Automatic annotation (TrEMBL):
Pfam families: SBF_like. Signal peptide: none annotated. The chain crosses the membrane at residues 7-24, 30-48, 69-86, 98-119, 126-153, 165-183, 204-224, 230-252, 264-288, 294-317. Keywords: Membrane, Transmembrane, Transmembrane helix. InterPro entries: Na+/solute_symporter_sf, Put_Na-Bile_cotransptr. One of its GO terms (cellular component) is plasma membrane. This is Bile acid:sodium symporter.
């Protein structure tokens, strides 16, 4: 119940940022300095994630390469294929910017914290979840820009080169993460004493990016372009996508012979998309594009996936106690 209440608080904060940006958007020189502050917060967040990740858990989890290969397939193949196949239906319904955001969401890596938390709650293979989710985020820093370049921006910006974006994402996300790993023996003891610090940066940096992105979108006329009916279509599209992927992630591991603990891990790591990495990536990849509309699908999908996974993880945990 406490976890669900915490989820609700973050959902309320996200909605609050959207409302705040709608009525009090940040713009001009203030927006420039706000974006710099947001970038620093994101870099600190990934530094803390690096310091938090146990090397022992990584080494133990790396042994399950078949599981990681399947999670990788779901994250960077099945999701994108579904997103691309849905184009004839979704692009007319949502419009190009929102469909781009939907497709961008399909190209993103998995979540880290929630994948591990739900796997632990449902008695899955936690060590493998740590490794799989972390590997997904690291490799996603390179794969996501390439997919965006080829399937989205390549169609509108001929000659778009993802190399610059990959370098920027590496400097913003991967370098701080690696530094955190290297300095873990010195940083982690302090993190244990203040466990809320990672959560504060995790949620705080996302809220800052969402406020900045929606401020820019509102100034550009976001709510004159997105109707209530369009939002409903987007929620339905995200729900259908999650349902399809979850059904596949539930039955495919069984068909392939994975044990129950690994099935739980695959289910939670394969069916989610990261908001924490996704929004900073969008800032770098979609310069000059309607960023508020690009990040709206991942914001909606993120809330749906957490609520659904919370119910499923709780149900599985209770069924194993009986």
């Amino acid at each position: 119940m406490l976890k669900l209440l915490a989820l609700d608080r973050f959902t309320i904060l996200l909605v609050t940022m959207v409302i705040l940006a709608t009525f009090f958007p940040v713009s001009g020189q203030i927006a420039h300095y706000f974006n710099i502050l947001t970038t620093v917060a994101i870099a600190i967040l990934f530094f803390l994630h690096g310091a938090k990740l146990s090397r022992e858990a990584v080494l133990e989890g790396m042994m399950h390469w078949k599981m990681h290969a399947l999670v990788f397939t779901f994250t960077f193949a099945i999701f994108p294929v579904i997103g691309l196949l849905a184009r004839p239906v979704l692009e007319p319904l949502l419009g190009q910017p929102l469909y781009w955001g939907f497709l961008f969401m399909c190209f993103l890596p998995s979540t880290v914290q929630s994948s591990i938390a739900f796997t632990s709650m449902a008695k899955g293979n936690v060590a493998a979840a740590v490794c799989s989710a972390s590997f997904s985020n690291i490799i996603g820093m390179f794969i996501t820009p390439i997919l965006v370049s080829y399937f989205i921006l390549g169609q509108s910006q001929h000659g778009f080169d993802p190399t610059k974006s990959i370098i920027q994402i590496t400097l913003l996300l991967l370098v701080p993460f690696v530094l955190g790993q290297l300095l873990r023996p010195y940083i982690f003891p302090y993190m244990v004493k203040v466990p809320s610090i990672v959560k504060a940066f995790d949620q705080g940096s996302i809220l800052m990016v969402v406020y900045g992105a929606f401020s820019s979108a509102v100034v550009a006329g976001l709510w004159h372009q997105v109707s209530g009916l369009t939002l409903l279509y987007l929620v339905l599209a995200c729900s259908v996508l999650l349902t399809i992927v979850m059904l596949l992630a539930l039955y495919v591991p069984k068909w392939l012979g994975f044990n129950q603990a690994d099935q739980v891990t695959i289910f939670f790591c394969s069916s989610k998309k990261t908001l924490a990495s996704g929004v900073p990536m969008a800032q770098i990849l979609f310069i000059g594009q309607p960023l508020g509309m690009i990040v709206l699908p991942i914001m909606i999908f993120h809330q749906i996936q957490l609520m659904v996974c919370g119910v499923i993880a709780n149900h599985w945990a209770k069924s194993k106690q009986e």
